[in-house]
C-alpha cells in the first residue's frame, strides 16, 4: 500500500513572499513588508533592531515579490497543469483589515482572495490557507506592541470569523499560525515583537506565545462552528534533533531541544501545557499572565491535524565542547559530519524526514500534513529561461521516498505533501530571489530587476508525473 487515494499533493507559498501589491487594493503595511535584504535583516527579524517603516537606504523585496497579486490566474493554471490537488497559501492580514483593529473588513481585499479561491476550485485545487504566515499589521505593533498584548486576541478572532464566514464552501483546510515555534527564534517575524533595552525577552516571547496559542484555539472553535467540514491544523518548523554522540549529556541536550520545538504543538494538539514547559518557565522566572477561560479553550479546541515544514534534521549543541555550526531554517544547528549540505549550508537528510514523521506520529497520533519541503538553490537558466534542475529532483525524490517508507513501513497517517516555493519567490530567511525552490522559474533578481516571466523548469514535468502516479514514479525522465 502506498499513499492514500485522496492524498493531497501540491505546493506552498506565503503572501509576503510572492504576492507583492503591498499598497494596492486598500492593503495596509505589515511587519514582513519592512524587513529589508542585507546585513540588518537578521537583527530586525529577531526584534533586536526596530524598523517599522520604509527608508531610502534599504531594498524591501516583499513590496513587489513576484507580483502574484496580478499573476495568480496564470500561476494557478500552471499548478493545475502539474496536477496539484492542493495549494497552500496565506492571507495577508492587512488586505482584510489594513490596520488590524478595524471593526469592518476591507471588501476589496476579501474579494481578491475570494476570486483566488474560486480560481483554485475551478481547477480542482483545494486551498490550504494559513491565516497568519509571519504577518502582523504594523499598526498593531506600533499601537499595541504586537502579540505581547492580549488585545491581539480580539483582532485575530475578528479576522478569523471574517474569513471563515466569507470563504465557507471555498476553503476547508486551515492553518492558524505558520511555524509557531519560530516566535522563539524570530520574534519580530513570528509575532511582531520589538524588544526595548533591558526588557526580559524570554518573558515577552512566552507571553506572546501564550496569546498565539489561545488565539489558535479560538480560531479552531470558530472554524468548526461556522462550518463543521472545516479542518484546522497547527504548524511547526520541524526536524528532529540528533545527539552529537552517545554521551548521556548530549542525548539529554537533544531531548531538551526537541521539547523546545514540540512545546507549542503539545498545547495545540493535546490541549494543555506540558509539565516540562511549566517547570522550564518556573526555573527561568517566567510568569504568564493568563485567564481561566484560556485553559478551557485550549483543552476543548485542539487541532484536527498537525502540519509542519521539514528541510533538515538538526544536531543538538554539545555539552562542554567545541562544535562547528551549519545554517538552517532561521536557527543554526551543530554540523552533522554524515550529511551533505545545500549551497546555503542546510544539511540534506531524507531519512531525517522519516524519523521526524515517526516522532510526531508517536507523540500525537493525529493525521499529519507536510506543508513545506524543498531545496533552495541557485538556478542558472538557459537563454529561454529553462532550468535543468536535476539536483532539485534528486532532493525531492529522496524525501518523497522517505515519507513513503514512513507510510508503508511504519504506518504513520499522512494526508498530504506540499513542496515549498512551488514557484520561485522571495526567501523568508535572506530576502533573496537567487535562493530558488520552485518548479517554475520567475525572471527576477535580488535587486528587483526582471520581466517576471514564468518558465517551467525540468522539475515541473517530473513533479507532474509524481502526482499522476500518486508517488509511485519518482524516476527522472
UniProtKB/TrEMBL annotation:
EC number: 3.2.1.86
Any Pfam family matching the protein: Glyco_hydro_1
SUPFAM superfamilies: (Trans)glycosidases (SSF51445)
GO terms of biological process kind: carbohydrate catabolic process
Any one annotated GO CC term: cytosol
Protein family per UniProt: Belongs to the glycosyl hydrolase 1 family.
Protein name listed in UniProt: 6-phospho-beta-glucosidase
Gene: ascB
Amino acid at each position: 500500500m502506498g499513499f492514500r487515494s485522496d492524498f493531497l499533493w501540491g505546493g506552498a507559498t506565503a503572501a509576503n513572499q510572492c504576492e507583492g501589491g503591498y499598497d494596492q487594493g486598500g492593503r495596509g503595511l505589515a511587519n514582513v513588508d519592512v524587513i529589508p535584504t542585507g546585513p540588518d535583516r537578521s537583527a530586525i527579524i529577531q526584534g533586536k533592531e526596530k524598523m517599522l517603516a520604509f527608508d531610502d537606504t534599504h531594498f524591501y523585496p516583499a513590496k513587489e515579490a513576484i507580483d502574484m497579486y496580478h499573476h495568480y490566474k496564470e500561476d494557478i493554471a500552471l499548478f493545475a497543469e502539474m496536477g496539484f490537488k492542493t495549494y497552500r497559501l496565506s492571507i495577508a492580514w492587512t488586505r482584510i483589515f489594513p490596520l488590524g483593529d478595524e471593526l469592518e473588513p476591507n471588501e476589496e481585499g476579501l474579494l481578491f482572495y475570494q476570486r483566488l479561491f474560486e480560481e483554485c476550485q475551478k481547477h480542482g485545487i483545494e486551498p490550504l490557507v494559513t491565516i497568519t504566515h509571519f504577518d502582523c499589521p504594523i499598526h498593531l505593533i506600533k499601537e499595541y506592541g504586537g502579540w505581547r498584548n492580549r488585545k491581539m486576541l480580539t483582532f485575530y478572532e475578528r479576522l478569523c470569523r471574517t474569513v471563515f464566514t466569507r470563504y465557507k464552501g471555498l476553503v476547508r483546510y486551515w492553518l492558524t499560525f505558520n511555524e509557531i515555534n519560530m516566535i522563539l527564534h524570530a520574534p519580530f517575524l513570528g509575532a511582531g515583537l520589538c524588544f526595548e533595552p533591558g526588557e526580559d525577552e524570554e518573558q515577552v516571547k512566552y507571553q506572546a506565545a501564550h496569546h498565539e496559542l489561545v488565539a489558535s484555539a479560538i480560531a479552531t472553535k470558530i472554524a468548526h462552528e461556522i462550518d463543521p467540514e472545516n479542518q484546522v491544523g497547527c504548524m511547526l518548523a520541524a526536524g528532529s534533533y540528533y545527539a552529537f554522540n552517545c554521551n548521556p549529556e548530549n542525548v539529554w541536550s537533544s531531548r531538551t531541544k526537541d521539547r523546545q520545538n514540540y512545546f507549542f504543538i503539545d498545547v495545540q494538539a493535546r490541549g494543555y501545557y506540558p509539565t516540562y514547559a511549566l517547570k522550564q518557565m518556573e526555573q527561568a522566572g517566567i510568569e504568564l499572565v493568563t485567564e481561566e477561560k484560556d485553559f478551557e479553550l485550549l483543552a476543548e479546541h485542539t487541532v484536527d491535524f498537525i502540519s509542519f515544514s521539514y528541510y533538515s534534521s538538526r544536531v543538538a549543541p554539545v555539552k562542554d565542547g567545541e562544535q562547528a555550526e551549519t545554517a538552517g531554517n532561521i536557527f543554526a544547528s551543530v554540523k552533522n559530519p554524515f550529511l551533505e549540505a545545500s549551497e546555503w549550508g542546510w544539511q540534506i537528510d531524507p531519512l531525517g524526514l522519516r524519523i521526524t514523521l515517526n516522532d510526531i506520529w508517536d507523540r500525537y497520533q493525529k493525521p499529519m500534513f507536510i506543508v513545506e519541503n524543498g531545496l533552495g538553490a541557485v538556478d542558472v537558466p538557459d537563454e529561454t529561461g529553462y532550468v535543468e534542475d536535476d539536483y532539485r529532483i534528486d532532493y525531492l525524490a529522496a524525501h518523497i521516498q522517505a515519507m513513503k517508507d514512513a507510510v508503508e513501513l511504519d504506518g504513520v497517517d499522512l494526508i498530504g505533501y506540499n513542496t515549498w516555493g512551488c514557484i520561485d519567490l522571495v526567501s523568508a530567511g535572506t530576502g533573496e530571489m537567487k535562493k530558488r525552490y520552485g518548479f517554475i522559474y520567475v525572471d527576477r533578481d535580488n535587486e528587483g530587476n526582471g520581466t517576471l516571466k514564468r518558465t517551467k523548469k525540468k522539475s515541473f514535468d517530473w513533479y507532474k508525473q509524481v502526482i499522476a502516479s500518486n508517488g509511485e514514479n519518482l524516476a527522472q525522465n
